[in-house]
Amino acid sequence: MNKPLLQLLLTRIALAAVTLFAVSIVVFAATLYLPGDPARAALGAKADPSAVEALRREFGMDRPAVVQYASWIGGALTGDFGRSIPSGRSVWEAIGPRAINTLILTVTSLLLLIPLSFVLGIAAALFKDRLADHLISVPTIVTVALPEFVIGTVLIVLFAVYLRWLPPVSLINDSLPLSSQSTLFILPVLTLLGTTLAQVVRMVRAVALEVLSAEYIYMVRLRGISPARVLLRHVLPNTIT
């Protein structure tokens, strides 16, 4: 993987980690300090105060806020998200299916992102300033400037409202196998691909142009080696690494 792509990947991972950490603090603080008592809400407004206090002790809500957060974040990092106060069930039982769906979306998007970005980026570089380059570069420049919610809205209007090929809302039915609901993943995956694919395509194009302008590529071409062989043996490996 070339350095710019690696930098982009590491930056995205770091930003995601910082964002998750910040969101966890905000949500935890809001749950702790906003009006209302989860223990009393679970037992009811007329619950006995001793029962409410016992439930608070059971779930560790009588401890200092810092200790509660440290306990929660430590459990979350090991896969233990605690129990739901109203139901007493494991939190993972509630979020597990949705986390799996999110993982499927992420993996599917990556499996499409990697080959598409290299194919489109190298094609744009090979046909620099020609029709193929314009057909790839102009949409990527426009897409980079759009936030993901705009891309998602446009895709819904086009494929769900106008063409009516796909459902506008992707609600997974946990009682049915995911294979029978595959169409529900198409619009979310396309939305995730939107801005990310455009950014990576622009990056791959720039790297491929740099490789194509190298002197050794010019010498390889002078030796009469076919363009396809130059692409597969020299341009593609040097763009990836």
Residue share in helices? over 70%
Shape: elongated
What is the rounded distance between the termini?
A: 4 Å
The proportion of residues in beta strands is under 5%
Largest sheet properties:
none
Number of domains: 2
Number of strands: 0
Sequence stretches where pLDDT stays below 50 over 5 or more residues: none
Query: Which H/E pattern describes the elements?
Result: HHHHHHHHHH
Q: Calculate Rg over CA atoms.
A: 25 Å
Mean pLDDT rating: 81
Structural class: mainly alpha
Keywords:
10 helices; mainly alpha; 241 residues
Structural account:
- This protein has 241 residues and is mainly α.
- It folds into 2 domains: 3-91, no CATH class; 94-240, no CATH class.
- Helix content is 72%, strand content 0%.
- It has 10 helices and no strands.
- It has helices spanning 3-33, 38-43, 49-58, 65-77, 91-126, 131-144, 148-162, 186-212, 215-222, 227-240.
- The N and C termini lie close together (4 Å).
Summarize the structure.
By secondary structure, this protein is mostly helical.
List the helices and strands and how they pair.
Elements: H1 3-33, H2 38-43, H3 49-58, H4 65-77, H5 91-126, H6 131-144, H7 148-162, H8 186-212, H9 215-222, H10 227-240
